[in-house]
């Protein structure tokens, strides 16, 4: 419960306890006057429901208006007091409290918080009087607000739950809450649809990214295989060239060896057989080089 509301209920409790002893209309009227003048009493519905106070409604004409006055303090405004005839004259404390409570009711709509409107609605004589009322209401903890003197308006942030519900107001309040609930449900449905759409788009984007990654990996693999095959062909070409070079060297060596044997044979028959053996050895060495 709001601390200010709890404080107001505690302040009212003393008058509720006194109500059984206010058995006469005059005593009940005096109790209403005391309750509406006392500090910190801002809620009055429970007092209205007590037996002796409720009896004022059908009481003598000089006391019955006190019941109407208590109703105005419970859920009415200064305008209701001003437009209702035959009500008791308010004390300074009562007038100040009723204006404070009226300011709470007017705070429900931004359009009613201009200096011009408040001066008229609260029957205040000057801007200074209005600002003093607003400041006292703030310090009493009844609302959170600030004065915008440049724009000539009162900016209200929050209001304490101190006004009682007028009889017959509950169905209207339920209708208002149902409409608010419908708007909330509609907003939530819209948010859920947006969330689903975002998730769907994210899933599709992820699928595209996976397809792109797969395609890139496939291209990279193909490029590596192609480079590997090309490198293998180069190695084979180098090996073949090396073998051809070796064979050419062997052929040249064999030709040189044959020339040397021819020369030896011409020089003398005695060396011919040894030269042949040397030629055979050279051929074997050449074969080993080939191998």
Any descriptors?
about 290 residues; mainly alpha; two-stranded antiparallel ribbon; 2 strands; about 5% strand; rod-shaped
What report would you give on this structure?
- By secondary structure, the protein is mostly helical.
- 71% of the residues lie in helices and 4% in strands.
- It has a two-stranded antiparallel ribbon with strand order 1-2.
- Strand 1 (143-148) and strand 2 (153-159) form a beta hairpin.
Helix and strand arrangement:
Layout: H1 3-18, H2 25-37, H3 45-48, H4 51-54, H5 65-75, H6 78-83, H7 92-106, H8 115-121, H9 127-139, E1 143-148, E2 153-159, H10 169-267, H11 272-290
Antiparallel strand pairs: 1-2
Could you say which structural class the secondary elements and strand pairing correspond to? Answer: mainly alpha
* Unreliable residue stretches: 270-283
Mean pLDDT, as a whole number?
84
- The number of E-state strands comes to 2
**Amount of helix:** over 70%
Summarize the structure.
This protein is mainly α and 291 residues long. The protein has helices at 3-18, 25-37, 45-48, 51-54, 65-75, 78-83, 92-106, 115-121, 127-139, 169-267, 272-290; strands at 143-148, 153-159.
